[in-house]
Please model this.
Amino acid sequence: MKNRPFEGLNVLDFTWAGVGPLTVNYLGFYGATVIKLESQKRPDVMRTLAPFKDGIPNVERSYHFAYVQMGKRYSITLNLNHPKGIELAKRLISWADVVVESFATGAMEKVGLDYDHVKKIKPDIIMLRTCMHGHTGPLAKQHGHGFVLTGLSGLDGLTGWPDRPPAGLYGPFTDHVAPLFNAISLLAALDYRRRTGKGLYIDQSQHETVLHWVAPLILNWVVNHQEFHANGNRHAYAAPHGVYRCQGDDRWCAIAVLTDPEWTAFCNVIENPALAKDPKFAILLNRKRNEDELDKIVEEWTIKHTPEEVMGLMQSAGIAAGVAANGKDQAEDPQLKHYHFFNELEHPETGNLSFYHGPLFRLSKLPFELGRPPLLGENNDYVYTKLLGIPDEEFVQLMEEGVFD
Amino acid sequence: MITDNTEGLLSPYRILDLTNERGFLCGKLLGDLGADVIKIEKPGGEPARSIGPFYHGIPDPEKSLYWWAFNVNKRGITLDIETTDGREILKRLVKSADFVIESFDPGHMERLGLGFPELSQINPGIIMTSITGFGQTGPYKDYKASEVTLWSLSGEGYVTGDPDRAPLMPSFPIAYSFAATSAAVGALVALCHRSVTGEGQHVDAPAYLGLAWASGAEVQGLWSVDKTIVKRSGGAWLRPQTGTSSADVKYISLPLIYQCKDGNVRFMPFVEVGMLPSTMGLTNWVIEEGMASETLKKVEWRTWNWQTVSQETVDEITQSFSRFFIKHTKAELWEGAQKRGIQLYPLLTPSDMLEFEQLNIRNYWEEVEHPELNATITYPGAFVKMTEAPCRIRRRAPLIGEHNEEIYVKELGFSIKELLVLKQAKVI
Model:
């Protein structure tokens, strides 16, 4: 009896870049057989993005590619500009239970592999298509990526200092959000198919998805006609609240004092118990009124301590505080270690890299399984001759005809 | 009240939702897919109903927009699980439920005798999902986990914001949305696993893992492999240039956000596959309007190489972009970008979002009736579109104890008299 939920589940993965692969990972982590389809002429764009291991640009050496290809998968190359390439793609669709792709509208249509066609080949297929604007409407054909979706989703406008233009979020932040919604949809669809035998088509507009994280602020416009504003690190109804400079070069610690008892405890930690009763700060309303002055008092204390000391002292007193961790702090973080957040995997081109991740949750009875990022076309032989059963001679013939380019 | 009984993907399943503001979103997302989500609040109402903004700016537990947005598609009952009767009632509910979602501090459910081992004895198929800041175990598990703490400690803060100021967080909670959304993924993996093994399990979803993950390949890879620390660079991307060894890696600072006449826009001159037309489109537009530097006029994007270009060249190009953007409004830039196939995006505010044509044409927004206010209110709609079993809003967020009678009397079989006893004893 199988004991992993997706054992025997066949997934054909046309995705590239961030959101698509990060979606498919959730099936690969738990036993699915995933075939990642690329072409030699147009490999996954992530393979071409620096930084590369040892600084050497090469399709197998991108950190970005390694970071998103963590669920186990086979890599094949297939030339979809070749009629026999399309034939083979159709055979792979017959093999698959799930097809996932992440191009803008047009790419799959051009090769006749949109849902209507795919469904004819495999009536109970689950097909998930994800792109920035969804597959209908005037923007369907527009490419997208996480570096601009942070702007469209409002998250950039919410991240900044009141006296400056928005700083925006770091990196393609939404590329880490949209896959979770896709995974939810896919997993629910798999359960639905198990129960009803019916496949379905899922059309994700990443924009529509990500707006759910700021839904209360959208309602605030709808019913109150109020826009949102970035307000640095301040909290609407708590103080002190911020990220404060500590001892060391660019070292900082976040502190959030959220209740009256925490305020008293905070004043004790900074060895200034009198401050708790100082009329300027004793009540929240006054702390908010005099917040600039309060922040200076806090920083006069934090600057004399390392962020680790600040965090330790505050947390021991029951006050929320956290070092502003950099890459080194993350690598040494005991909580991340405890959760086996960083995993090392061997790779023939890059050696051991240590920043491979599993899912963002842990299951008490089901461990996840990682796979190293596949080399481009690494599994052509296995997939075409073993899984699809193409005779060796024909395989060689097709190769010579450029079908696997 | 909208009631729409069309089937959803998760229609057969029942969820008991014990979450506070950290975890509302999890049950909401599963409810969007049709699950029967019962929001269990303390008698008198969930304290997080005090979180604003509020309908018409009036602070009222029935008018919290935070509550509304994240509790649609749930029925609501009141129950104090800290009382003996309350715990017994919860256990009765667990018998017919598939999922329990909670976001208390780690250990709280165990202290009430409602930990996963106890619940799975009552119902071996139950899937318990726990949403926390740092997780159920480990050295930080009992740390106070406010948004800014998680944001900082995860690594997000250090790379967000301007280099001359403190690490920066968004002015709206994001950390727990990671936990609540991943919790829904974990719960559904557990559901698929249950269909194989027949057993439920415990899902541990810490916000910390999600945020640390989102800090990305550069932060983690550049330290662990190259011993380089990535720093915050404001609205700019430090694009790595590679050499013959990692010691040669240099960075090109590339603005991501530009000011325009009435706001801000995002644009990146990508030359990767499929992106050339966008970059060339903007270049031509800037040239046409006479605002291009000599460098921009002469640039050959087709042969452009991010690996070898100098910072000076990049600056001469992006300064032309800046001059051009500041002369135009968001609307002008967006309209022109559409015509010319340029991937340029305004930083949208909520009013822009409601008018965004693509969202309207796709019928994204849903009208939700609030009969008690005699109002119909526009909400963000389905997070995905599907050919079967639609993802949609079936009901607005529950009022305090709105479904007490429906669930306690009609479904659990309590008499009205017993309900009265439980109410007076503050169990319900």
Observations:
- The mean pLDDT of chain A is 96.
- Residues 243 and 254 of chain A are 4 Å apart (CA to CA).
- The longest helix of chain A spans residues 178-196.
- DSSP finds 18 helices and twelve strands in chain A.
